Amino acid sequence: MTLFNMNSIQVLSIARTFCEGGWRLMTADLNGDSNQDLVCLRADGSVSYLLNTDGGTFLTAAEQNINASFTCNKTLIFGDINGDNKDDIVCQNEDGIIHFALTNSSNLATGLFTSQQTFPTSWCNGTMDQIMKGDLNGDGKIDLLCHAERTYLRSALISSGASFEEELFEMELEVCGDENQFLLVRDINGDGYADLVCKSSDLTGTTKIIHNKPGEYFTDQSVRNEFRFCVNGGPTNFYVEDVNRDGFDDLVCQTSIAKRYIFISRCYF
User: Fold this and answer.
1) Would you say residue 265 has pLDDT above 60?
2) Per its UniProt record, what Pfam families does this chain match (predicted)?
3) Could you list the residue range(s) of the whole structural domain that residue 39 is in?
4) Percentage of the chain with pLDDT > 90?
5) Strongest mean pLDDT among 54-63, 166-175, 186-195, 253-262
6) What is the DSSP string of the chain?
7) For labeling, which of 16, 19, 45, 146 is most exposed (least CB within 10 Å)?
């Protein structure tokens, strides 16, 4: 296993195997120590993880398999559901069953998670439906947003800390519905409310920012910005991250020709 230490631009070769066979390797801070842990999502929907407890070497971390009730062969999301600064786990399987678990020292040590809530199988379970995460109401907890058919914002489930409440809104707001567009949910202006970033992956490079005003949840389409950035940039080379750690998410583009990274720092929009 090979890891990159971005603080020192160092490549670390780890003398152990994890997540072999072309499975999906992900990262999340499961224990709230500000270090990214490794999570493996296998083709059958099973999940295992290594806690980063020894300076990023993972040599002493014991691999834990999450119990079989958490089958994530459709969607696996990490985020702080209850505001304790630990990434919790949200899973959706092919039958549309969604369950989530709050991480703590006990279940992280054993891998035995208890499903806190089961959602109706009809919620965001279409073939093209996409479950996304973001803090929609500014309370510091991750909520779930349904991008139905990858075309409409249809509804959202709001975290109360111990469960997800009923749908916050029910609407058919067309967002990022063209075939060559993809949607990201990020807090662009640093106000604590998740915004929408709609990116075209064609020659236009059209990038749209729709801001989330408290209590309106994207319904005010006048609160938006549109500009040209990262032409031909698709989901694999366009990113939204806080590059300079100033609390504002920035736009990052890896060009396909020059193989260079272009970024906009401190994007207030």
Assistant:
1) no
2) FG-GAP_3 (PF13517)
3) 1-121
4) 22
5) 186-195
6) -EEEETTTTEEEE-SS--S-SSPEEEEE-SSSSSSPEEEEE-TTS-EEEE---STT--SSPPPEEPPTT---SSEEEEE-SSSSSS-EEEEE-TT--EEEE---HHHHHH-------B--TTTT-STT-EEEEE-SSSSSS-EEEEEETTTEEEEEEEE-SSSEEEEEEEEEEE-S-STTEEEEEE-SSSSSS-EEEEEE-STT-EEEEE---TTTTT--TTSEEEEE-STT--TTTEEEE-TTSSSS-EEEEE-TTT--EEEESS---
7) 16
